[in-house]
Amino acid sequence: MSVGKRGTVIRTASVLLLAVVMVLSLARMDLERRTVRRDERLYFPSGTFLVESTLGFRQTAADYLWFRFIQYFGSYAKGHHDLRYFDLLLDGVTRLDPKFVEAYHFGSLVAWSEQDDFAKAVDILKKGILHNPDVAKLPFQVAFTYYVFFHDYERASFWFETASKCSDATDREIRFAAFARYKAGDDRVSLALWQDLKKTASSPDMQELADKMVRKLERKLKIRQLYGDDFIGPIPEL
Description:
By secondary structure, the chain is mainly alpha-helical.
């Protein structure tokens, strides 16, 4: 057997072995419940190991791991387990395919909506921006997080501007950049952002959350219109 063929056989065998480890590890995730012992650890290959052991097959491995990541989150949404392996899976996917924009975007949504960790959501997005600096979706989501949750309008404006300068930017990014610059703290901007998320989110849970926030802000703006900016509750029924 030639050196080249031997190398191919070794790489193929390594990938198959890795696939078996991933399948067994992920199957164990599916079976876990919330009552797992605190000191129990799941063996799952680190992101670094995945990258080193899937040379030539990284895209395939990333696609498979992403599919299982979505299944894992779906199982969590049904109450079957917690998100203890969320970071591990997301790191594996993005190390295998640093250009996988949707993984960073979805990961950030999970971080703030399910874990209430807004700083972590921003960190995930910024990691994605390092590898995808000309994709508007990621800085736009950073701006969304700063505007809606941190109320840091200066930083939000900066990231909206950054998104508006990306090669794939549309009127959407340019419009919100202008909103944030001239209407900092305006609930109408927050409403527009939630309406945008409701329209663009692929997750039904995220759409439901966005719809809830849209209705809440619409009610708040309606009350302000009827009773003025100085109105102090209780909020009347409309």
